[in-house]
Every structure is written in structure tokens, then in C-alpha cells.
Amino acid sequence: MRQTARILVIAAFAAGAVALGAAPSGAGAPPTNSFTVVKQVTGPVPAGTTFTVEVTCESQLQPVAQAPTPTEITFDANGDPTSNNVVTAGAGMQCTANETVNGGATSTTYACSIVRGDTDQSGPPFLGNCGPDDNQATFGDVIGDAATITVTNTFPPAPPIQPITPAAQAVQAAPVFTG
Fold it and tell me: Can you name the residues that pair with 93 across neighbouring β-strands?
């Protein structure tokens, strides 16, 4: 009986050591993918203008998962982020960026680019991809990929400044010949 107990204790320690050796390095946080939103503006932007982009990441592996909580990212008139503009997403997630406050821009466009991490270098097909729309990135069964969505707002050019022409003044003249 004692021999069995010793064997079980040694087996438990060995299993724990194997589990610790297999755990990812770092602070214990699981490795993730990143989804970064970048803002570009063209044309004159009125001072004090702000922009808001909402990012939603949904699981593609669990279609009946809990509704995702959107993350709001804000930018100033120059397009500089005024909040954290990086969202982390695990494997199996699809992230979408939608601008909800465009500052009065006449148009908004999206572009996606992706840098594949070490676990996604054996494609094609790759597991992390832009799309299916320009404002989305889909991370399949992969970690370490980094997607960037660029949101571009276009503002109309300022109207040209017209020179001010003074109004014509009435001229009064005395008659020269009265007779």
C-alpha cells in the first residue's frame, strides 16, 4: 500500500514538472494575435474633430458564443490615437472595425494588412487573413499574427478665398452747362 502511494506521489510530481515545462513562457498570459487600428485623414480637418472606431471580435469556432463586447478606439483631428488602438484576439476570432464617428468626413475607406507570426508561416493557405471585407481580419487556428486596419477619412478641400470687390459708389456731378 505504501509502495503504491509513493508511486502515485512521484507520478504526480513528474506530471506537474512536464506540465510546467510545456507551459508558454511569459507572465502566464496566453499567446494572442493583435488587431491594430490606424487612422489617416486627407483634406482640411476642422480643429477639435474626433473620430471613433468600434472593434468587435467574434469567435468563429463557437457560433453560439456569448455576444462580443465592442472596444471603442478614439482618434484626434490629426488621426493620432487618444486611446489604446490595439485589440488582442485569440485563435479562431474574426475582428471587425467600424467607424461610428467620422468627424463629418465626406468618405471613409478601410484597408487591411497582415503580418504572419511563426505559427502561420507554412501556407498558403494561411490561417490568418484579411477579410472577407476590407475592415476585417480572421485569425484561424493561429497565434502571433498581427493585422492592421487603416481607416481613411476624406474631407473636402477648403473653398478658395475670393477677393472682396468693393461695391460701386454713386457719383454725383454738377451740370457744366445750364443754359
Answer: 59, 139
What are residue 41's DSSP bridge partners? 153
Reported as a single tens digit per residue, the pLDDT across 4-21 is: 444 433 444 343 333 333
pTM: 0.70
Q: Which residue has the cell 493620432?
A: 80
- For strands 136-139 and 107-115, give the pairing: unpaired
**CA–CA separation, 68 vs 80, rounded Å?**
26
Query: Region 83-99: what's the mean pLDDT?
Result: 94
Q: Whole-angstrom Cα distance, residue 18 to residue 107?
A: 56
Distance CA 64, CA 10 (A): 42
Q: 44-62, pLDDT tens digit by residue?
A: 999 999 999 999 999 887 7
Q: Report in angstroms the alpha-carbon separations of 134 from 15, 106, 109.
A: 46, 19, 8
- Smallest CA-to-CA distance from 116 within 151, 148, 84 is with 148
